[in-house]
Design a protein that fits this description.
The chain contains four helices and five strands, in the order H-H-H-E-E-E-E-E-H. With 151 residues, the protein is an alpha+beta fold. It is globular.
């Protein structure tokens, strides 16, 4: 992804959190399917935010709260296809990982030092990179991977 770390696009103001609406702030009413996907992501993020140190009984760190908030701000930007096809999970170092539900060879990792991503298609086309951690850049990467490397 050529321009993934240009910093284009401003992060949204805080949107999300416990009890947050699944509606966007743009005034558009999203489809029921999209609202349901957003709600599921917010519920998952609430679960992840409650993990304590040693959550995996092997010394895993609690997820950094700023990362949970960054992903909450990403959710209203994401398409239904991205939200339906990717799974967010804890990583033992306190960061978050994203994998496609389909098991396709793609992953995104977000930590305090940035976002990294890797994908490989059946034709052996590969892409990888590192970018700044903002909701907009996470959105751009996830949409790109979903479009170019179907998950």
């Amino acid at each position: 992804m050529e321009n993934c770390n240009t910093g284009a696009g401003e992060p949204m103001a805080h949107y999300g959190g416990k009890g947050s609406s699944a509606y966007s702030t743009s005034g558009e009413i999203p489809s029921k399917a999209l609202r349901d996907q957003r709600r599921q992501w917010y519920e998952r993020l609430d679960e992840l935010s409650e993990l304590k140190d040693d959550w995996n009984e092997e010394g895993g760190y609690a997820i950094v709260p700023e990362l949970i908030e960054l992903v909450r701000d990403f959710v209203p930007l994401a398409s239904e296809q991205v939200l339906a096809n990717w799974w967010v999970m804890p990583v033992p170092n306190g960061s978050l990982g994203f994998s496609p539900e389909s098991g396709a060879f793609a992953s995104v990792s977000i930590g305090m030092n940035g976002i990294s991503f890797l994908a490989k298609s059946e034709g052996n086309n590969k892409t990888s990179g590192v970018a700044t951690s903002t909701p907009q850049i996470l959105h751009d990467i996830m949409e790109f991977l979903t479009r170019v490397y179907p998950v």
